[in-house]
Amino acid sequence: MQESNTSHLLRVVERSTFLRRRLLAVAAAVLALLLVLLLPPYINVSRYQRRVAGNIGAALGRAVHFDSITLNLLPIPGFTLENFVVEEDPAFGSEPILRAGEVRVNIRLRSLWTRQVEFSRIVLTDPSVNLVHLCNGRWNIESLFLQASRSNAAPTAQTYSGPSPRFPYIEASNARLNFKLDQIKTPISLTDADFALWLPQPHQWRLRVESHPVRTDSSPADSGTLRLEATLGSASGAPVSSLAQVPIDLRGDWKQIQLGGLSRLLLARDAGLRGELTLAFHILGTLGQSDITTNISLDNARRDDFVPPQPLSVVVSCSSHVQNTFHTFNNVECHWPTSGPGAITFTANLPEIRQPHNVSAALSIPSLPAETFFDWLAVATPHPPTGFAGQGTLSANLFWGTEQQTQENVQPTLTGEMKFSGESLDLAALGPKPIPLGDLLLRGTPPPPATSRRPRSGVQTPAAPATSFDLAPISLPLGGKQSAILEGRFDSDGYTLHLIGSALPARLLALGDAVPQLGDGLRPLLEPTNPLGSNDDPKSTASESSAQPIRFDLTAARPWGGSQIWHQTAAPPPTHPHHRTTR
To answer: What does 490-515 look like in DSSP terms, one character per residue?
Structure first.
C-alpha cells in the first residue's frame, strides 16, 4: 500500500515538472517573438549608416550613399537600404552607375556567432544600371569586375564558413539596363530584366539575365525576349590584369522577335516586314578574343501589305572570331542551308564595329534553283513574274568593300555578277513551247577612279558615283522580223530599262503582264491614242492589230519605291562634222 502511494506521488511530480518545462519553453518563444516584433523600432541602426555606406563603397571602389537603413529580424535577419545609389567614376560621366529604390541584405545566421558577418542574399528592387562605353574602348564596369576578381571569396553555396567570406547571391527584379556611348545615351535599353549573380567556384561567376529589348524614342513594339546565361572567370583562379583577359562562356537566345518590332528597335520605324525571328548564340573564349556561333531561324516572313502564297522560312548558321573586346569581327561566315552541297555562303570582316563603312563582305550563290528564287520574289512583291518556266538556276558572286579603305573620301562599292542559266519564257501567247533565253547576266560596273588632282580651295569634291549593275542585252522573240532587245542598269537610286526592236503588240503586252517588273507602265504606250499603238484603222486596238508587228525604242525609269514610267526614247541629237576653218 505504501509503495503504490509512493509511485503515484512520483508520477504527479514528473507531470508537474514536464508541464513547468513546457510552459517555460512557450514563454521563451512568446518572449522571443515579442522581442522580434517590438524590439527593432527601438534599435537605432541609423548611426551605422555612414559606416555601412563606407564599407560598401570601399568594396566597390565607388562612392555609395542611401537615404535610410532599417533592421529586419523576420523572416531572415538583415537590413533594408532605401534609395541606394552607386556613383559613377568621373571619367565615365556624372550619372550614377546604379540606382535602386530598395536593397534588402540578408545575413547568414551562423555567421552571427563568428567574428566575420556574412551576407547570404542581396535583392535589388527596380534598379537602373548605366553601362558606359568610351571611344577609347574602356567600360565603366571594368574596374568593378577586376576588383571583384581579385577578392578571395568562397562559393555562394558552400555549407560552412571558412577563412574567406562566402559570396552572396545577388538578384534583381524589374531592372533596367541603359547603354551609353561616351556621354550620349543610346535609345536602346533592356527593360523588365530579372538578374542573378553568384559564385559557384572561387574566382568564377555565374550570370543569368532575362529581359526585353526596347527603344525609348519610338512607339512600343514586340521585340521578343532576350535570355543570357554566362560563366565569367576561371576556376583556376589565374589573375587577370584587364577585362579582355577574363574567360567567358556565354549561351543565350533571343526569341519571339517580330520583324516589325525588330525594325522599330533598330531603325525607329516600321520597315513593313512581318514574321518571327529567333536567334541562339554561344560565345566561348575571353572578353578580348572569342569565337561566336549563331543559329538564325526566320519563320513566315512577308511584307505587311499582302499575304504571299507561301511565306519565307529559313534557318541560317553563322560563326565568327571576335577580337578587341567585341569591336573586331573577323571571318564572319554564314551558310544556308546549314548543311549539304550548293549552300549559299556569306562572308565578312569588320575591323571596327564603330566604323561600319570599312566592312568587307562577299556573297556566293553556287546554284540556287530558279523556283526558289521566284518563291522569294513572291514574298517581296505582290506581283511576282509568272512568265518564266522556273527550271533554271541562279548563280552569283558579289563583293562589297574597297581596296583603299585607308584613304579619305573613298566609298565602298558593290561589284560582281549574277547569272540566270537555263531559264526560258513559258507563255501561251508566245507559242506552245518555252522559248530559251540563254544566260541572263547582271554584272557590276565599278565607278571611275577618283582623280588624283587636289581640288581648289573652297570647292567641294563630288562624291564618287555608286556602283551600278548592267543587264546584258537579252534577245526576246516577240513576233517581229527581228527579236526585241532588252537591256538595263541598276544602281542605288533605282533602275532604267531599254527595250528596242519590233514585236507583235499582243505578245509584248502578254510578256509585260507575265513579268510586271517589265510591263508596269507599258500598256498606255500601246493604246490607240498613242502614236506607238496607232495604225491605219483608228478604231482598232493593240490586241486587234497584233498581226502587224510594230517597231519601238522605249526607255523606262523607276526609282526604288516609286512608279515605273515608260516613254519613247528621244532620238540623239544629230552630229555635225567639224568644219576646218582656214585663215
So the answer is: E-SSEEEEEEEEEE-HHHHHHHHHH-
Phi, psi of 488 (to 5 degrees): -165, 175
Among 249, 233, 246, residue whose Cα is nearest residue 200: 233
By the 8 A CB rule, do 280 and 253 touch?
Answer: yes
> With 0-12 CB in 10 A as exposed, 13-18 as middle and 19+ as buried, what is 62?
buried
- β-pair partners for 176: 128
Residue 52 confidence (pLDDT): 75
459 or 205, higher pLDDT:
205
Which phi and psi (to 5°) does residue 508 adopt?
-65, -40
Find out whether the peptide bond into 516 is cis, omega within 30 degrees of 0: no
Report yes or no: 40 and 72 within 8 Å, Cβ to Cβ: yes
| 439 secondary structure, DSSP code | E
Joined together, the cell numbers standing for residue 166 give: 562566402
Of the pLDDT bands very low, low, confident and very high (cuts 50, 70, 90), residue 335 is: very high
Q: Is 214 in contact with 188 (CB distance < 8 Å)?
A: yes
pLDDT of 418 reads: 93
User: pTM higher than 0.85 for the full model?
Assistant: no
C-alpha 499/C-alpha 476 separation (Å) is 10
3-state helix, strand, coil in the chain (%, to 5): 20, 45, 35
* Phi, psi for 59 (deg, rounded to 5): -70, -35
Which pLDDT score is estimated for 78?
Answer: 79
What number of other Cβ atoms are within 10 A of residue 323's Cβ?
Answer: 16
Which three cell numbers, joined as nine digits, stand for 232? Answer: 565569367
Distance CA 90, CA 95 (A): 9
Q: Which three cell numbers stand for residue 182?
A: 561616351
Q: What are the residue ranges spanned by the domains of the chain? A: 35-202, 468-568
Angle 18-21-25 from CA coordinates, rounded to 5°: 135
Q: Taking a C-beta distance cutoff of 8 angstroms, is the pair 278, 296 a contact?
A: yes
Cell numbers at 553, concatenated: 525604242
pLDDT at res. 406: 44
Among candidates 300, 268, 266, 294, which has minimal Cα distance to 281?
A: 294
Q: Tell me the C-alpha distance between 46 and 55, whole Å.
A: 15
Look at residue 542 and give its three-state secondary structure: coil
Supply 10's cell numbers. 512520483
CB 496 within 8 A of CB 468: no
Picking from 488, 539, 479, the residue whose alpha carbon sits closest to that of residue 509 is 479
Distance CA 41, CA 71 (A): 8
Give CB contacts under 8 A, 24+ apart, made by 178-181. 178/128, 178/129, 178/130, 178/131, 179/131, 179/133, 180/93, 180/95, 180/130, 180/131, 180/132, 180/133, 181/133, 181/135
DSSP 230-264: EEEE-TT----SSGGGSEEEEEEEEEEEEHHHHHH
Beta bridge partners of 178: 130, 189
